[in-house]
Protein: L-threonine kinase
Organism: Sporomusa termitida
Amino acid sequence: MTIKVKAPGSCGELVQGTINGVNFLITCPVDWYSEVTTVSGGSMAEVRPKTAAAVCKTLEYLRVPAAIGLKVESDLPVGKGMASSSADISAACQAAALAAAATTLTCDEIADIALTIEPTDGVFYPGIIMFDHVQGQIRRCLGQPPPIHIAVFDAGGQIDTLVFNHRADLAALNRAKEPQVMKAVALVAQGLKTGDARLIGQGATLSAVANQQILYKPCLEPMITASNHFGAIGVCAAHSGTVLGVMFSADAMSGHEACIKEICQLCPEVAYLKTVRLIAGGLIITGDDGNER
């Protein structure tokens, strides 16, 4: 039986930082996916090393001596802060477990495996979650997102997640911005609780601005100005990546195209990628019949 598992990517994070020194992010899953399919023959020749490692660790965890063949299809940009590795790894873990042991891993089990490989985004958890992407100490669902569209822009370059999270100055810089980050968390959590998209946008913008002391993006301030002018609810950022997103509530999409054009004129070094939807995270599993499991 062929098994397909899809995992969403992200447009950075709604919030990221530390609370009392403990790392966390609030996920920003979007409808831009990585899809892993089981294939016969046990081949993983074209699978990236981190994904192959996740499969091996999954089989070790399940104590199943099996050879799993996988194919990964994804056009999520790599090294941009769009959770491309986390999407690949989480989908591969689940596909391997289903193929080798006919069992479904819990999100916590996937997280535990993924965190042994690299800092991990929690996009494979259902809903929007607050997640410790380094050690997994925090795993808390905050709710379901209201309708929000995000125009995704790339400021250029690539960021290595492992290198970024081993910066010698990172802990001190995160401690310095904890007051702003706590305000951002409160806004986003309240927005998710009440379905108020504007609160989510305000919290995401506050976190993006606070992160400028850690990973500066010259285009951020002009993007915030343009987003305000065209009725967007805020700007989200990849706190350890290069993408930025301009967020629009469902009733403010009339200014969407004009805003994109304005940003491209103000910031010619920035590339518009596509417009996506903020979604509830989680894996989508299908079989030969195409039905979700």
